[in-house]
Amino acid sequence: MEQRPSEMRMIPIDQIETLNPRERNNRVFEEIVANIQTIGLKKPITVTSRRKQDGTEHYLLICGEGRVKAFRSLGETTIPALVVTVSDEDALIMNLTENIARRQYQPLEVLQGIERLHKQGYDKKIIATKTGLRPEYVHAILTLLRDGEERLLVAVAKGRIPITAAIMIANAGDDNKAVQVALQDAYESGDLRGQQLLQARRVIDSRQSMGRSMIPGPRHKRSDVTSSSLIRTYQKEVARQKMMVKKAEFAQQRLLFVTGALRQLLADENFTTLLRAEGLDTLPKYLAERVWPLGHAA
């Protein structure tokens, strides 16, 4: 990848085009903004310059999307930038490589980068060479994307199961017996052990009951999945699970309120006498165990 000499300059924020936009955790973004407010920008962003048809200059953002958003949120109109001269393809590769090199990169972004490089015409060996990823890993990711294996892709990206085990499961198709054989082979080969074996079992159960896609709906043997749609689906699934947790917490609070109120009411002899007279002096076992946790009767 040829890269000509770079130049440091202040550039207008409104002339920056994000090359590979990504979602950012709100807490992380707030930390970036706070750091810039406190100590300023420690590292300039990296861009490459382009000319529009009307001759005006704009910039493709290679590295520093969070810093650009932070500057924009602070009302700044310009930002320090390292301007390099590279091709569109090399800019994309630099962006992907920078994301992979970050300590806390988002795993699904790597899938997106691999897919985009593949669409640019690079084969698995070239992608592996340019990004530092193993050719086997790149090939496996492209295979899972092609086959619409969303659940397996998310499990691999989040480090729940190794890519080798995911490929073995995917190759088994929808045949339950073949999937079980693949799971056993992965265990015997050492690819799946301990917690990863449990995670694989959960992914397989979800894959068999709800299909390869994480989008609710009719099951399909194959689907045209892209890394972008996978990221959106994964984000929706995370949001759904967070909402379920909130509902569970709310239900738990309501239950604690009800059991507390019942405990106070049942301590009143007049109230319990009235219940007995009406034939309402028993509680469901589940509720009774919470009203009297030690098993005492009213």
From TrEMBL:
Residues 9-100 form the ParB-like N-terminal domain. It comes from the Bacteria. InterPro entries: Chromosome_partition/occlusion, ParB/RepB/Spo0J, ParB/Sulfiredoxin_sf, ParB_N, Plasmid_RepB. Signal peptide: none annotated. Coiled coil: none annotated. Belongs to the ParB family. This is Plasmid partitioning protein RepB C-terminal domain-containing protein.
